[in-house]
């Protein structure tokens, strides 16, 4: 008897384009959410567009600013929502406030609206929150946003490095899917052909268009935001972050533990993807294409460009498998010699 079932949760409205922040009020009205919003943001987005966002939302919006991601921040947002009598959340900013809002909304049983101010990560749309805790980092299931409003004028005005970080987060889907397929073959981990294909195609399209992604072009923000949406949808189809997070993400999460705040998430996973592609396929494999695409976009391809010394990269690569119970090419850990060879051959160190 056939007993399989799946529940794919997706946003109802995804609005991307020039000036669409002005449509936020209409988008919220269309969702039929009622009551008081709580805007969850971080310092820069608050300073840049906080007032414009609140002006779009009726019912005297409250605001909470998060400085660091983590369960503490989620708890603070939950408390603020209860204290302020909020009934829905608006995540405004980069991955940190959006992930925090997403998870707090899930705890509260509230809907939330995602308003990215940077094309820096593919959690804009996803039904996952990536939350650090101690030496580990959890990929927590949460409802995806009810709506996403991504104003390309705002995103294009953000520092260029945030956009190149988003590009690298997408390029890293190559190795994430490789790891997922490996885990499927070796560990019988459930694999979704649709999610895997969508994720890989998104990375391929971005790599093919890498030459046209240029600083100062709002069209580039458009291309990257659409790719981030597509990658987030792949995660929702999979019901996990597997299509967009493999060993390259474990490597990045370790770097976050060793030297928090040193480099952007997307930039770290991009360099991780070069290393992991080498570990998968050796010298003749995809790692050169990944490195070249990152270089064309202007994302870091070396430890030095990330701002880490060589030994930090080796430490992160040899301990990344401990981050979480997710089978990847790293298996139960790679030796220091193997890590050093991968980093040296690929020019990462
Ligand atoms: N849930 C998921 O599926 C995914 C989650 N993630 C998570 O997202 C996080 C990474 O996202 P990221 O966006 O890099 O993190 P942040 O939210 O920390 O944003 C990075 C930086 O960008 C700044 N910023 C944001 N928007 C603007 C703007 N318009 N102009 C100027 N500065 C701006 C922030 O400033 P300030 O701090 O001053 O406000 C911050 O310093 C990681 O924690 C990662 O794990 C990543 C991918 C997928
Ligand atoms: O960053 C992600 C996808 O780009 C997901 O993060 P996790 O590795 O925590 O699942
Ligand atoms: Zn990521």
From TrEMBL:
<protein>
    <recommendedName>
        <fullName>Glycerol-1-phosphate dehydrogenase [NAD(P)+]</fullName>
        <ecNumber>1.1.1.261</ecNumber>
    </recommendedName>
</protein>
<keyword id="KW-0594">Phospholipid biosynthesis</keyword>
<feature type="binding site">
    <location>
        <position position="249"/>
    </location>
    <ligand>
        <name>Zn(2+)</name>
    </ligand>
</feature>
<feature type="binding site">
    <location>
        <position position="126"/>
    </location>
    <ligand>
        <name>NAD(+)</name>
    </ligand>
</feature>
<comment type="function">
    <text>Catalyzes the NAD(P)H-dependent reduction of dihydroxyacetonephosphate (DHAP or glycerone phosphate) to glycerol 1-phosphate (G1P). The G1P thus generated is used as the glycerophosphate backbone of phospholipids in the cellular membranes of Archaea.</text>
</comment>
<dbReference type="GO" id="GO:0106357">
    <property type="term" value="F:glycerol-1-phosphate dehydrogenase (NAD+) activity"/>
</dbReference>
<dbReference type="InterPro" id="IPR032837">
    <property type="entry name" value="G1PDH"/>
</dbReference>
<dbReference type="InterPro" id="IPR023002">
    <property type="entry name" value="G1P_dehydrogenase_arc"/>
</dbReference>
<feature type="binding site">
    <location>
        <position position="265"/>
    </location>
    <ligand>
        <name>glycerol</name>
    </ligand>
</feature>
<feature type="binding site">
    <location>
        <position position="265"/>
    </location>
    <ligand>
        <name>Zn(2+)</name>
    </ligand>
</feature>
<feature type="binding site">
    <location>
        <position position="169"/>
    </location>
    <ligand>
        <name>substrate</name>
    </ligand>
</feature>
<keyword id="KW-0520">NAD</keyword>
<keyword id="KW-0560">Oxidoreductase</keyword>
<keyword id="KW-0479">Metal-binding</keyword>
<comment type="pathway">
    <text>Membrane lipid metabolism; glycerophospholipid metabolism.</text>
</comment>
<keyword id="KW-0444">Lipid biosynthesis</keyword>
<feature type="binding site">
    <location>
        <position position="253"/>
    </location>
    <ligand>
        <name>substrate</name>
    </ligand>
</feature>
<dbReference type="InterPro" id="IPR016205">
    <property type="entry name" value="Glycerol_DH"/>
</dbReference>
<dbReference type="Pfam" id="PF13685">
    <property type="entry name" value="Fe-ADH_2"/>
</dbReference>
<feature type="binding site">
    <location>
        <begin position="117"/>
        <end position="120"/>
    </location>
    <ligand>
        <name>NAD(+)</name>
    </ligand>
</feature>
<feature type="binding site">
    <location>
        <position position="122"/>
    </location>
    <ligand>
        <name>glycerol</name>
    </ligand>
</feature>
<dbReference type="GO" id="GO:0006650">
    <property type="term" value="P:glycerophospholipid metabolic process"/>
</dbReference>
<keyword id="KW-1208">Phospholipid metabolism</keyword>
<dbReference type="GO" id="GO:0005737">
    <property type="term" value="C:cytoplasm"/>
</dbReference>
<keyword id="KW-0862">Zinc</keyword>
<dbReference type="GO" id="GO:0008654">
    <property type="term" value="P:phospholipid biosynthetic process"/>
</dbReference>
<dbReference type="GO" id="GO:0106358">
    <property type="term" value="F:glycerol-1-phosphate dehydrogenase (NADP+) activity"/>
</dbReference>
<keyword id="KW-0521">NADP</keyword>
<feature type="binding site">
    <location>
        <begin position="95"/>
        <end position="99"/>
    </location>
    <ligand>
        <name>NAD(+)</name>
    </ligand>
</feature>
<feature type="binding site">
    <location>
        <position position="122"/>
    </location>
    <ligand>
        <name>substrate</name>
    </ligand>
</feature>
<keyword id="KW-0443">Lipid metabolism</keyword>
<feature type="binding site">
    <location>
        <position position="249"/>
    </location>
    <ligand>
        <name>glycerol</name>
    </ligand>
</feature>
<feature type="binding site">
    <location>
        <position position="169"/>
    </location>
    <ligand>
        <name>Zn(2+)</name>
    </ligand>
</feature>
<feature type="binding site">
    <location>
        <position position="169"/>
    </location>
    <ligand>
        <name>glycerol</name>
    </ligand>
</feature>
<keyword id="KW-0963">Cytoplasm</keyword>
<dbReference type="GO" id="GO:0046872">
    <property type="term" value="F:metal ion binding"/>
</dbReference>
<comment type="similarity">
    <text>Belongs to the glycerol-1-phosphate dehydrogenase family.</text>
</comment>
């Amino acid at each position: 008897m056939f007993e399989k079932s799946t529940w794919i949760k997706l946003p109802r409205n995804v609005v991307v384009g020039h000036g669409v922040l002005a449509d936020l009020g209409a988008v919220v009205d269309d969702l039929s959410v009622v009551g008081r919003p709580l805007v969850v943001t971080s310092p820069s987005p608050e300073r840049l567009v906080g007032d414009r966002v609140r002006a779009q939302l009726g019912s005297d919006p409250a605001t909470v600013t998060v400085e660091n991601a983590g369960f503490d921040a989620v708890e603070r947002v939950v408390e603020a929502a209860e204290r302020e009598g909020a009934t829905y959340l608006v995540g405004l900013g980069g991955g940190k406030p959006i992930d925090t809002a997403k998870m707090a909304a899930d705890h509260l049983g509230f809907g939330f609206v995602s308003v990215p101010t940077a094309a820096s990560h593919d959690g804009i749309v996803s039904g996952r929150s990536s939350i650090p805790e101690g030496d580990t980092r959890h990929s927590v299931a949460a409802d995806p946003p009810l709506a996403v409003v991504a104003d390309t004028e705002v995103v294009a005005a953000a520092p260029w490095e945030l956009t190149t970080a988003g590009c690298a987060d997408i390029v890293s889907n190559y190795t994430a899917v490789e790891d997922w397929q490996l885990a499927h073959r070796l560990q019988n981990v459930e694999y979704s052909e649709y999610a895997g294909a969508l994720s890989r195609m998104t990375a391929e399209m971005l790599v093919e268009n890498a030459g046209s992604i240029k600083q100062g072009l709002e069209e580039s923000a458009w291309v990257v935001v659409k790719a981030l949406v597509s990658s987030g949808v792949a995660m929702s189809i999979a019901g996990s972050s597997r299509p967009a997070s493999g060993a390259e993400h474990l490597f990045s999460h370790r770097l976050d533990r060793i030297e928090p705040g040193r480099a952007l998430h997307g930039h770290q996973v991009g360099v991780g993807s070069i290393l992991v592609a080498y570990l998968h396929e050796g010298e003749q494999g995809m790692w050169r294409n990944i490195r070249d695409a990152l270089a064309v976009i202007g994302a870091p391809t070396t430890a030095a460009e990330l701002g880490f010394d060589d030994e930090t990269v080796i430490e992160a690569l040899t301990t990344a498998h401990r981050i979480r119970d997710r089978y990847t090419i790293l298996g139960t850990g790679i030796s220091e010699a193997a890590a050093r060879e991968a980093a040296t051959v690929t020019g990462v160190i």
